[in-house]
């Protein structure tokens, strides 16, 4: 299943609104020993599912084999035919599934179909890892909004930027490399109008072999941002108020998403096929997301530097300590000179 999760990861950032899914086919010699005969992953919506690629890869060697799949094989005719049927026709003996498919069109029917055909099915192997990997897909189906990952880098005294000009990067090259990997893996990258105006960020993925750029999403209530800013490339989205004058952005070919509130805006993004969002700044936007309970995961780089007076990662008034939002499933990882601290605010 670990190999299947590695296969699935190759589709991260490319499959929305579908999930990233991986499949590995093993000819078992004994319970402890076997040979991987096929590998596959779902490359993008509209293309065949992971199981189909893995069966193709196995050639004729899948008969009597065990299939490891990170998501319950589908039972419905979508853009592609049911994978459960493909596995049955291929004559696999056993199917091991990491997580059930929350899609109401599948939701247990895939497993049932396999069992009805006499195939032994095990569910729940490395389930937590699979669910995390599929967070964007599952979030849209279960909650009607994308999975939001907030990311920032701060100094040892908790500042994300200086108050005056002369702002360089807070964190080092390893942290930057990690951020670029996340940009490659998440569907969209979001910033507020303040960050767009101050930094004119490109919001692209750089230095990742085979990498692709996330869809830029700019939260700009008044639609006052420069329509010529670097972030505006095909697929970019302007999120603005219902009555804002976005004529210049529309004329520039930018997708304009109008919403009354932040929660409505996020439902709108899900409707545009965005399952996961990397929220990269600034403090005003992050504070608004947190106030609405819309941040699911937090990834923070702490850099061994002291700045003194500067901008905090959050602008909103601090909550009283008894209401503080504590992360769970926290991990701490040294990255060069920096430390990456990550954790969840919500589960999926
Ligand atoms: C699988 N294996 O690799 C994936 C699955 O329109 P379709 O035919 O692509 O169906 C999309 C749905 O199929 C998607 O919403 C999810 O429920 C499931 N995705 N299932 O067996 C896969 N990507
Ligand atoms: Zn399928």
TrEMBL record:
Cofactor dependency: Zn(2+)
Family classification: In the N-terminal section; belongs to the cytidine and deoxycytidylate deaminase family. In the C-terminal section; belongs to the HTP reductase family.
Active site (catalytic residues): 51 (proton donor)
Species name: Deinococcus arenae
Residue stretches making up the CMP/dCMP-type deaminase domain: 1-122
Keywords: Hydrolase, Metal-binding, Multifunctional enzyme, NADP, Oxidoreductase, Riboflavin biosynthesis, Zinc
Coiled coil region boundaries: none
Enzyme nomenclature, EC number: 3.5.4.26, 1.1.1.193
Designated name of the protein: Riboflavin biosynthesis protein RibD
PANTHER family xrefs: 2,5-DIAMINO-6-RIBOSYLAMINO-4(3H)-PYRIMIDINONE 5'-PHOSPHATE REDUCTASE (PTHR38011:SF7), DIHYDROFOLATE REDUCTASE FAMILY PROTEIN (AFU_ORTHOLOGUE AFUA_8G06820) (PTHR38011)
PROSITE patterns hit by this protein: CYT_DCMP_DEAMINASES_1, CYT_DCMP_DEAMINASES_2
Positions that bind Zn(2+): 49, 74, 83
Pathways involved: Cofactor biosynthesis; riboflavin biosynthesis; 5-amino-6-(D-ribitylamino)uracil from GTP: step 2/4; Cofactor biosynthesis; riboflavin biosynthesis; 5-amino-6-(D-ribitylamino)uracil from GTP: step 3/4
């Amino acid at each position: 299943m670990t190999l299947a999760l590695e296969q699935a990861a190759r589709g991260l950032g490319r499959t929305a609104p579908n999930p990233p899914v991986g499949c590995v086919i093993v000819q078992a010699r004994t319970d402890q020993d076997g040979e991987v005969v096929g590998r596959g992953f779902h490359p993008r919506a509209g293309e065949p599912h992971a199981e189909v690629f893995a069966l193709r890869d196995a050639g004729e060697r899948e008969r009597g084999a065990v299939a490891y799949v990170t998501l319950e094989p589908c039972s419905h005719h979508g853009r592609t035919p049911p994978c459960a049927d493909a596995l049955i026709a291929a004559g696999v003996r056993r199917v091991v599934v990491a997580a059930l498919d929350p899609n109401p069109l599948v939701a247990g029917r895939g497993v049932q179909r396999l069992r009805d055909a006499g195939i032994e099915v095990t569910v729940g192997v490395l389930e937590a890892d699979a669910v995390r990997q599929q967070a964007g897909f599952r979030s849209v189906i279960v909650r009607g909004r994308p999975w939001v990952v907030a990311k920032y880098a701060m100094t040892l005294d908790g500042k994300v930027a200086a108050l005056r000009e002369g702002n360089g990067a807070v964190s080092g090259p390893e942290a930057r490399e990690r951020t670029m990997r996340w940009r490659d893996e998440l569907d969209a990258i979001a910033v507020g109008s303040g960050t767009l105006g101050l930094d004119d960020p490109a919001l692209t993925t750089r230095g990742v072999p085979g990498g692709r750029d996330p869809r830029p999403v700019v939260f700009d209530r008044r639609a006052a941002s420069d329509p010529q800013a670097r972030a505006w490339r095909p697929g970019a989205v302007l999120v603005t108020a219902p009555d804002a004058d976005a004529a210049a952005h529309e004329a520039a070919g930018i997708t304009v998403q109008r919403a009354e509130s932040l929660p409505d805006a996020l439902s709108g993004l899900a409707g545009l096929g965005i399952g996961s969002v990397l929220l990269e700044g600034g403090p005003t936007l992050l504070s608004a997301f947190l106030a609405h309970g819309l941040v699911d995961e937090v990834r923070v780089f702490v850099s061994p530097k002291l700045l003194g007076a500067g901008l905090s990662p959050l602008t909103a008034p601090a909550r009283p300590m008894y209401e503080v939002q504590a992360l769970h499933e926290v991990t701490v990882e040294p990255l060069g000179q920096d430390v990456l601290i990550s954790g969840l605010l919500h589960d999926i």
